[in-house]
UniProtKB/TrEMBL annotation:
NCBIfam families: TAT_signal_seq. It comes from the Bacteria. Keywords: Hydrolase. Its EC number is 3.1.-.-. Residues 79-289 form the Calcineurin-like phosphoesterase domain. It comes from Polaromonas jejuensis. GO terms for molecular function: hydrolase activity. This is Metallophosphoesterase family protein.
Length: 364
């Protein structure tokens, strides 16, 4: 077992390789369970963060990666941002995916006033290859606002996040937070899977195929993991209880439908951490459908895809969910697809507008 070169003093005792960043061997760890990016060098990590050797030596790595929130006493200012997800571009073999993503980019760029930022909630590509990533990057380069990324399973399970971490997330961890105009924003890494591949001796391509197939039970269920839950608790420690908290996760942060892995195994533990806060809005991708839910003080919104819509699972009505996606017509390029604009008002109210292309297809 490889050991972390920086141990987090708050690491749980049962988590022997809990790391705040990169091991001496150049491995990045996600909490105590997953090697994120074998081969990503310590030098690359430091350059990504814009750190020099001197600053690295002067400050504990954990403190640089866990800045905490300075929201106390901050007034909330009105702002808007865009949410985009599940573009699943596949390279030249599937041009409609490119056309749809470009349509969303054109619409976001035309927003007036411009959004403060864009949150991209994962599944940028489909098979995880570098060629696919480069194809996606060429398209997304046309998006003007600053864009924050989190990963979906399709971005991750060919190379265990190596390319996506370096080129899209560009942070030490796949989960992070920041404050913006009085709101606290948390990007979670919801697409963690336990190791289903080693004992089966699966190749990276086979691993990607299992993880990317929502019907394959071999993948198990998604989970945040103990280390990420501990980070959430610590991250929220200084956030005022009434502050708008915007949470982003690829996977629904509740248990929606297990047979398709619309499921976060340890969601109840995240809910317990969020329980003291009165204004929590979660946006998630992965389900490729409009779906709204509320559990106690937490509101959930499923984000439209720009690739294809999934049907509603049979649990949709039994969970008491609301909202309805018009039945998409596969002959129409933009049906059942779209993206979102979210707004935080000075009062703290959080709302979202669903740009559903079924009702108004984009100019093409
Ligand atoms: Fe997806
Ligand atoms: Fe997904």
């Amino acid at each position: 077992m490889k050991t972390a070169d920086k141990q987090d003093p708050d690491a749980p005792a049962d988590c022997p390789v809990y790391s705040t960043g990169v091991t001496g061997e150049g491995y990045v760890y996600d909490g105590c369970r997953n090697v994120l990016s074998p081969g990503w060098s310590r030098r690359g990590f430091i350059e990504t963060l814009g750190l020099t050797g001197a600053t690295l030596a002067a400050a504990p790595l954990a403190s640089m990666l866990l800045p905490g929130s300075a929201l106390a006493g901050s007034a909330v200012e009105d702002f808007r941002f865009a949410i985009l997800a599940d573009s699943h571009t596949m390279g030249k073999k599937n041009n409609p995916m490119k056309v749809r993503l470009e349509a969303a980019i054109r619409q976001i760029n035309a927003m007036n006033p411009a959004p403060d930022f864009v949150m991209y909630l994962g599944d940028a590509i489909t098979d995880g290859t570098i060629d696919e990533f480069k194809y996606f990057e060429d398209i997304i380069a046309g998006l003007k606002p600053k864009t924050y990324y989190l990963a979906g399973e399709h971005d991750w399970y060919l190379d265990m996040g190596e390319y996506y971490m370096q080129h899209m997330i560009q942070r030490a961890r796949p989960y992070y937070s920041f404050d913006h105009k009085g709101a606290h924003i948390m990007a979670l890494h919801g697409s963690n899977l336990n190791d289903f591949w080693s004992s089966r001796k699966l190749s990276p391509q086979e691993r990607m195929k299992v993880a990317g197939d929502i019907n394959d039970p071999a993948q198990g269920t998604f989970a945040l993991g103990r280390a990420q839950l501990d980070w959430m608790e610590k991250d929220l420690a200084t956030v005022p209880r009434n502050a708008p908290i915007l949470i982003f996760s690829h996977v629904p942060l509740y248990q929606y439908y297990k047979p398709w892995n619309f499921w976060t195994q340890d969601a109840d533990q995240a809910h317990a951490i969020l329980k003291p806060f009165s204004n929590v809005q979660v946006f998630h991708a992965h389900v490729h459908q409009l779906v709204e839910h509320q559990i106690a003080n937490m509101k959930f919104c499923g984000i439209l895809s720009t690739s294809w819509p999934h049907p509603y699972p049979e649990s949709y009505h039994t969970l008491g969910l609301s909202g309805q996606m018009p039945r998409p017509n596969p002959a129409r390029l933009f049906d059942g697809l779209g993206w979102h604009i979210a707004r935080v008002e000075g009062s703290g109210k959080v709302s979202h507008e669903d740009i559903l292309w079924t009702l108004k297809p984009p100019e093409s």
